[in-house]
Amino acid sequence: MEELAREAGITVRTLRFYRERKLIHPPRREGRLAWYDDSHLARLRTVSALLERGHTLNGIAELADALDHGRDVAELIGLDAPTEEEPVRLTPEELAARFEGEVTAENLAAALDLGYLGTDGDEIVHISRRLLDVSSALVREGIPLAEVLAAAKQVREHADALAELFRNLVLRHAPEEDLQRLRPLARSVVEAELSLALDRHLRKRDSGLS
Length: 210
Fold this sequence. Notes:
Blueprint: H1 2-8, H2 12-20, E1 28-30, E2 33-35, H3 38-52, H4 57-68, H5 73-77, E3 88-90, H6 92-98, H7 105-114, E4 117-120, E5 123-126, H8 129-140, H9 145-171, H10 178-209
Antiparallel strand pairs: 1-2, 3-5, 4-5
Helix pairs in contact: 4-7, 7-9, 9-10
């Protein structure tokens, strides 16, 4: 315990307090000996980084609990199914830096519920680099992460409906194995229609201003 506290730059008393708050995993026991490893040190450094960014211990405890009970990464990103999305591995510190001040327990829970995040050891896995880049860009533009995630939930519902529409269209005229081959066509239709819809809304806004 003394060695771990020294490496983490905290006091033994603080380390005991963190253990009581379940901010780190229990040590591996061998008789009366308690063994800590690099995963404990990484978690302590994460706690320190989040405290420096203004997070409370209660919030960090909820964050740690959510991470510890995250879904299996293989299930999360669909490794056993075809996908065009590239997952991204992040440390908790890197995730906090991406969304500085916005990585709250509530936002983490919402991201886990959407299936955006999972855990693999001490790493966090985001299901899609494109979604990660877009959401962090929107937050940098001043849009709260909570609102980005709420909008994402609505987008997910519409996207599921569009995917079902395309699937039914293909299956009425082609075998199911053609779905994967034809998915770029569905994506092109959705991207074009969204672009046209944005054009219509921008024209409506401009005509209102004039």
